[in-house]
Amino acid sequence: MIETAVLWLLKVIAAPAVGLSSVFLIAFVSATLLPLGSEPAVFAVVKANPALFWPAILVATLGNTLGGAFDYFLGYRAKVAFAKERSTRWFAWLAHYGPKTMLLSWVPGIGDPLCTLAGWLHLAFWPSVFYMAIGKFARYITMTVLLLYVPDGFWHRVGTMLS
């Protein structure tokens, strides 16, 4: 049943008529703790229609930032789950630097849990969201420009080397 639901969702968001809404949904889901990357969706929309470069970047940033805010609220409500981890250096680092640490919310692997920990520590919400948005916007600009303007032959060579 879950597999059917996932296949249906993938079919719906792959429809060309829903390009920007697909980007939003994928960016939101990828910002949660689920393992999904949104950069390929942004790249696909921009590659198919270069006039959508800025709208796609902004929609992806908004979706990913709202997903990060969702993570923040998960952390805000999850004190019991993280109680034994309170003494780790991550918590001390986050508490020391505060919402500015959300600039790192774009980093794969640590960005989403970082948003969750920010909520758990009750860092100021709006400054945290502001810094999340800056970090995520920078990531989408960087990744999309790299994918668009670095010659395809380079990416094919990288893919060949990795496989």
Give your account of this protein's structure:
The protein has 163 residues and is an all-alpha fold. It is built from nine helices and no strands. The longest helix is centred in the middle third of the chain and has 25 residues, at 53-77. The two termini are 33 Å apart.
Q: How would you sum up this structure in a few lines?
A:
About 75% of the residues lie in helices and about 0% in strands.
Report the mean per-residue pLDDT as an integer. Answer: 83
Helicity range:
over 70%
Distance between the termini: 33 Å
Total DSSP helices: 9
Tell me the major beta sheet.
none
| Oligomer status | single chain
Task: List the main descriptive attributes of the protein structure presented here.
single chain, 9 helices, mainly alpha, 163 residues, 73% helix
List the helices and strands and how they pair.
Blueprint: H1 2-13, H2 19-31, H3 39-48, H4 53-77, H5 79-82, H6 89-97, H7 111-120, H8 125-149, H9 152-162
